[in-house]
Design a protein that fits this description.
Blueprint lengths: L1 H12 L3 E6 L2 H4 L12 H4 L2 H4 L2 H6 L1 H16 L5 H9 L5 E6 L5 H4 L6 E2 L2 E7 L6 E2 L20 E4 L8 H13 L2 E5 L10 H8 L3 E5 L12 E3 L3 H16 L4
Parallel strand pairs: 1-2, 1-7, 2-3, 7-8, 8-9
Antiparallel strand pairs: 4-5, 4-6
The structure holds 2'-O-acetyl adenosine-5-diphosphoribose (OAD).
The site of 2'-O-acetyl adenosine-5-diphosphoribose has 28 residues, from helix 2 and helix 11.
Length: 250
């Protein structure tokens, strides 16, 4: 692992455009449950009941209860060393794009700016009927389901299964992935597309691609290097090594 870390630090130190995709694993060390790992959210809830447009239409109250529970969990946790390390890395490059599948807002709380939230955010709500957006949406919700002024109800601004990703946000993430020198996939099982394809696209366009995850994933063979460990340990270590290479003390 040390040899791999040194190799990645060398590559990063010489890079100017970096693109990153994160998943729920980066928030695991903050105490946010992942989806598909042992005791993950999708073992305890049926996603058809809480995370589809049909569920919102059939049972908006039940969907809101699920997301209010998640908002309560996420408000109670803090960003971890992995989130902070990415915020520290950003200004070290000419261009640094952070796309996340997470809806928890922890990257922003750790100081990352311009985060591309490809699956939306728990801290916004909108109305599918009239298009009104409430940002930020207060916690706790004043009423469940919260009424919209137009007579319909608001829904959480998260991407549900079967829905398209927010067009402009995903276009920006795709552009960054296609133009970068180095891409990371961090803390994601890489099974939910199209987000999972961002680092793959980067690799196809010639970028050096790195996975950070304690476990192998379906896409592991597509990466140049896989750093096997928790993001909260691997990322701060990497930041220190990149600094040392840049300062010529490695
Ligand atoms: P998953 O639960 O599918 O995968 C989490 C990944 O994080 C696994 O590969 C773990 O091995 C890894 N992991 C666990 N702890 C880690 C740590 N400390 N550091 C780094 N990695 C760690 O979650 P996602 O890949 O985020 O979509 O799931 C993708 C999408 O599926 C989510 O955005 C959500 C979900 O359904 C929507 O809701 C639309």
């Amino acid at each position: 692992m040390t040899a791999d870390l040194d190799r990645v630090a060398e590559v990063l130190a010489g890079a100017s455009r970096v693109s990153v995709l994160t998943g729920s694993g980066i928030s695991a060390e903050s105490g946010v449950p992942t989806f598909r790992t042992e005791d993950g959210l999708w073992e305890n809830y049926r996603l058809e009941d809480v995370a589809t447009p049909e569920a919102v239409a059939r049972n908006p109250r039940g969907v809101w209860e699920f997301y209010e529970m998640r908002r309560a969990n996420m408000q109670a946790v803090q960003p971890n060393a992995g989130h902070f390390a990415l915020a520290e890395l950003a200004p070290m490059f000419e261009s640094f794009t952070l796309a996340t599948q997470n809806i928890d807002g922890l990257h922003q709380r750790a100081g990352s700016a311009d985060v591309l939230e490809v699956h939306g955010s728990l801290w916004r709500a909108h109305c599918d009927h009239c298009g009104r957006v409430v940002d930020p949406f207060p916690f706790p919700a004043p009423e469940i389901p919260p009424p919209c002024g137009c007579g319909e109800v608001l829904r959480p601004s998260v991407v549900l299964f079967g829905e398209a990703l927010p067009h402009d946000v995903f276009a920006a993430a795709t552009a960054a992935a296609s133009e970068c020198d180095v891409a990371f996939s961090i803390g994601t099982s890489s099974v939910v597309w199209p987000a999972a394809g961002l680092p793959v696209l980067a690799g196809e366009r010639g970028a050096f691609v790195i996975e950070i995850n304690p476990a192998a994933t379906e896409l592991t063979p597509a990466f140049d290097v896989s750093l096997r460990g928790p993001a909260g340990t691997v990322l701060p270590d990497l930041v220190r090594r990149v600094r040392r290479v840049r300062e010529g003390t490695a």
